[in-house]
Structures are given as structure tokens and as C-alpha cells.
Design goal:
The chain is of the alpha/beta class. The protein is built from 15 helices and 23 strands. It is globular and about 75 Å long.
């Protein structure tokens, strides 16, 4: 959503501009905490299309390396409600798919779409990736070249990597060696394509690639969901339930495998229904455009655009139904500026701890989200995310998202690499935990705001830290909405210095909630 607030003006004009522009509605869909992710194959050439090897052909036929083709696929996937395409990749030394996956990311970003991209390094099909050494090197390239892209898919705040057919590399021990070498700090989120639960010692979540062997639509996912529940209970874990949806399958011509009749869309609906009923925390769609295996939803000669239309209908139903909880209770306040209401405990917290200047307007409804693998109710505001944690006593039953750290991570910037200090000048605060100081003009604002814990006048240092978190940087130059400003990053906020404004509007909080959408 474009939120070009004229907050650099005088206070009165800024307020008027804010009220006018805040009424711009939020986008119909942004990348969800319960993402819908579709496997995407960029390898196609015009010479591949053959009725002798495929049960259906795309309409139109294409080369996967053409910009016009990639742009069309981005538009089709985004319009159908898909959050991310999972691009098959043979590593940095295989130039054809390497170039095409990179171009997919570039064109999705340039087109202004919400669509994200993730990578699946296919070690099962490419010799250069069939070793721990080869995959370690490939992952280092993903980290340096891909993860920092603003539209690279993140799940639970981490860049996503998908894996297919784990036994093609080795057992759990081999994969453990790879992860210890390539991602020792567990800074990535790995989805593993297996139902062998021992692999959860390595992967963060599991998924099925193909469920079409099942006896009835949804049977595979229902069975897997029960097994996952048992595992989580035994292991004291909260690994997410990732549901697979498929329109059908037919690889008889290419390898004499098996076929699952699409039943005019009924099979597809059945697989989605299980994802909806079980409140899946993520959905894997097999596939956007795999024609050898006949699992495509891309427009085709046989089905036209039927499966794109069904995907739009079913993805909307998933978002409306997945993770539903009773609507918020208690007093509500409607905000016509953005078309959202705030209710109950979140509303009282918003009012008691700074309201509009600190949190901004609501930019989404209160809804179920997944935080560190667990479901919670939360609501997004312009400047932060308020999360309900009923397992905690007050005032800790509402917690703030670490949006400062999350936005930096999404930008590919490691705050721990920012220059640190050994102390602070007179009149400043020093935070040894992060190695940063806090001086004017931001110090007074920091001290003048906080969460009310002790019932005493003013705010203690602990109350201010509870609101903003610790500083993650020194004041530094930042490009904010196309203009240069001095800003300082905190765990939960970004302080911005606007000398063109009159007091008390010279220090403003960044719109981190908007930037996370």
C-alpha cells in the first residue's frame, strides 16, 4: 500500500494530509502469515511442448526465459491469490535456471506486485548439488544474492528454502551436516519434502509434494495432520501444519506413472477444503506449471483458465476461514480513516500506551497469525503490531512486534554489523546489551513515552524499553519515502528526525507496520 503521508509539513497541514491519505484502503491481499506457495518451473522451452509426452499443453506455449512470459505468470499467480512462487533452481553454476529465477524476483518487484519468490535447490536432478559441499556453496549464494531481496519469501521472519526428495542427498545425518555448515545459526526456514518425522531434527517444517495417491480428496492431509499433532505433543513442539493442494495429476505419457482425474475441479476443491477445515498454517500448491506431471493450474488448451479462477475462489475461502477465532469482544472503536476497528484488550492497550502518535491507525483487522510457530490474535497498525498473549498476566498479555528488527531483516541488513560504541557521551544513555547510545534529539522522546507498569508518574527506563526496545543502531542517514533523514533503529521502532516540522512533531516514529505489508 502506498502511504505517502505528507508528514514533513507543518503540523496542521501534516494532520490534514494524514487524515486525507490514511483513508486510502489497504490492499486486498498482502503476503500472509499463512502463505499460499506454488511450485514454479522456469525450465520450459518451445521445443518441450509435446502431446506425445503431456496430457495437456499451456495456452499459449512459451519459453520460460522470456520476460513477457514471466510477467504473465506473475500477474496470473498474484491475481489468483498465490503469495509466493517456489522457483526450481539448479544452483549458481547452471546459468539457465539461475538467470530465470533471478529474473522472476526482479520482474515481480518491478511490477509492484505483492508476489514473493522462494527457491528450491533441486539436488535430486542436478549433479552439482548432490553433495554437502555443493549445496553449502549454493546456499551461500542464496544468502548473498537472494535472501536480501525485498520480495524474497520469509516465513516466521526467516528467508525460506524448500527441499525436494531428501533421500537423494542422504539421511538425516547428511542433512544435519549440511545445515550445521550452511546455516549454523538457524537463520533460515527450511521446508522439507518428506513425511519422515525424523527429518524435523533438520527441517523446520515438512510438506507433501504429491498427495494424489490418496483414496479421496483430503485424506492424505487429514492423516498427516493427525500424525503431526501427535508429534508436536510428544516432542513438545509446535511445528506448523503445511497443507498440500493439487488440481490433479497425470504423468502416464512421460513415465507411465499414475493419474488422478480432476473431476471438473471437484478434486481440487476437496484438497483445499481440508486445508481450510484444519486451519493450515501454510499451503503448498503443486503446481503452477508442471505439465509433464499434469498438475498445472496455468491456463491450458484443455482447461482454459478454469483452475486460475478456482484458485482465486479457494484461496479467498482459505483466508476467510483458516485460523478463524470468535470475533473480538468488548468495546470497539471504528477508524474511518482506514476502514478498520479496534476492540477489547487491544483497544485499551492502544489508548493507554500512546494511541495514534505511538501506534498509528489500524491497517488491518484483528486476526489469527502465527508467531514463532504458535497461533495468536494480533492486529497491525501503521507503526507496530499488537499481539494478544492471554497466557501472560497483565500488562504482558499484549506484546509488541519487533518490527524494527523485522524490517531491517527484510531489507537484508544485519543490525549486529552496525558500528558499535564502547560508551556514551555525557547526557546520553548507553545500552551495553547492543553497544549503542541514545542522545538528543531522540533521548527526550524515548524518555517521554513508555508502557505503564508501575502506576508512578512518568516513565521509567524499563517502561520506555518495553515500548521501543533496545537501540539497534546509532543515528544514521536513511532514505525514507524517497527523502534523506536522520534515523535511529530500535527493536520495535525507528525514530526519525524531521527538523522542518515544529515541536512536538520533529521526532516521528517510522511507519514500520506499513513497510512490513
Amino acid at each position: 500500500m502506498s502511504m505517502r503521508y505528507a508528514r514533513r509539513l507543518t503540523p496542521i497541514l501534516a494532520l490534514l494530509a494524514l487524515l486525507a491519505l490514511a483513508s486510502v484502503p489497504a490492499p486486498a491481499r498482502a503476503v500472509s502469515d499463512r502463505p499460499i506457495m506454488a511450485f514454479y518451473y522456469p525450465w520450459w522451452e518451445q521445443s518441450d511442448w509435446s502431446n506425445s509426452r503431456m496430457s495437456d499443453l499451456p495456452s499459449p506455449r512459451y519459453s520460460g526465459g522470456d520476460d513477457a512470459t514471466i510477467r504473465r505468470h506473475i500477474q496470473q499467480a498474484d491475481d489468483a491469490g498465490i503469495d509466493a512462487l517456489i522457483c526450481t533452481w539448479y544452483g549458481p553454476d547452471e546459468e539457465r535456471l539461475n538467470k530465470r529465477c533471478r529474473r522472476l524476483i526482479e520482474l515481480a518487484r518491478e511490477g509492484g506486485r505483492d508476489l514473493q519468490v522462494a527457491i528450491i535447490p533441486d539436488q535430486s536432478a542436478w549433479g552439482g548439488l548432490k553433495s554437502v559441499d555443493g549445496l553449502t556453496r549454493a546456499l551461500s549464494v542464496l544468502k548473498s544474492d537472494f535472501f536480501g531481496q525485498p520480495n524474497y519469501l520469509r516465513y516466521q521472519g526467516k528467508p525460506v528454502v524448500f527441499w525436494f526428495n531428501p533421500p537423494s542427498l542422504g539421511g538425516v545425518g547428511t542433512w544435519q551436516e549440511l545445515r550445521d555448515r550452511a546455516d549454523p545459526g538457524r537463520e533460515q526456514y527450511w521446508f522439507g519434502g518428506t513425511d519422515n518425522f525424523s527429518f524435523l531434527d533438520v527441517y523446520d517444517a515438512l510438506y507433501y509434494f504429491d498427495i494424489t495417491w490418496e483414496t479421496r480428496p483430503g485424506a492424505a492431509m487429514a492423516s498427516y495432520g493427525r500424525r503431526l499433532d501427535d508429534y508436536n505433543q510428544r516432542a513438545g513442539q509446535s511445528r506448523p501444519f503445511v497443507a498440500t493442494v493439487m488440481p490433479g495429476y497425470d504423468d502416464l505419457k512421460v513415465r507411465g506413472g499414475h493419474a488422478r482425474d480432476r473431476e471438473d475441479g471437484a478434486y481440487y476443491r476437496g484438497t483445499w477444503q481440508t486445508a481450510i477445515e484444519r486451519g493450515a498454517q501454510a499451503v503448498v500448491l503443486t503446481s503452477f506449471n508442471e505439465f509433464f506431471e499434469g498438475s498445472h493450474i496455468e491456463p491450458s488448451e484443455r482447461y482454459g483458465d478454469l483452475y486460475l479462477r478456482l484458485t482465486k475462489e479457494l484461496s479467498d475461502s482459505f483466508r476467510a476461514g483458516a485460523g478463524q477465532t470468535p470475533p473480538p469482544t468488548g468495546e470497539c472503536q471504528q477508524f474511518p480513516e482506514t476502514g478498520h476497528q479496534v476492540c477489547g484488550r487491544i483497544l485499551s492497550y492502544w489508548r493507554e500506551n500512546g494511541g495514534l502518535p505511538v501506534f498509528g491507525y489500524p491497517i488491518g483487522p484483528q486476526q489469527a497469525v502465527t508467531i514463532e510457530g504458535k497461533p495468536y490474535q494480533a492486529q497491525e497498525f501503521e507503526r507496530n503490531r499488537l499481539e494478544l498473549h492471554p497466557e501472560n498476566g497483565r500488562p504482558y498479555d499484549v506484546l509488541l512486534g519487533r518490527l524494527g528488527a523485522e524490517v531491517l531483516g527484510r531489507q537484508g541488513r544485519d543490525w549486529q554489523q552496525f558500528g558499535k560504541l564502547g560508551g556514551a557521551p555525557d547526557g546520553c544513555l548507553f545500552f551495553a546489551e547492543t553497544g549503542h547510545s541514545l542522545c538528543e534529539p531522540f533521548l527526550s522522546y524515548f524518555r517521554g513515552h513508555g508502557l505503564e507498569f508501575d502506576g508512578q508518574p512518568g516513565y521509567s527506563l524499563a517502561e520506555s524499553i518495553a515500548l521501543f526496545g533496545l537501540p539497534l543502531s546509532e543515528p544514521q542517514g536513511e532514505n525514507i519515502q524517497g527523502n534523506p533523514y536522520t534515523a535511529q533503529w530500535f527493536e520495535r521502532a525507528r525514530f526519525e528526525w524531521h527538523p522542518e516540522n515544529q515541536d512536538p512533531y520533529r521526532v516521528l516514529l517510522g511507519l514500520l507496520g506499513v513497510e512490513m505489508r
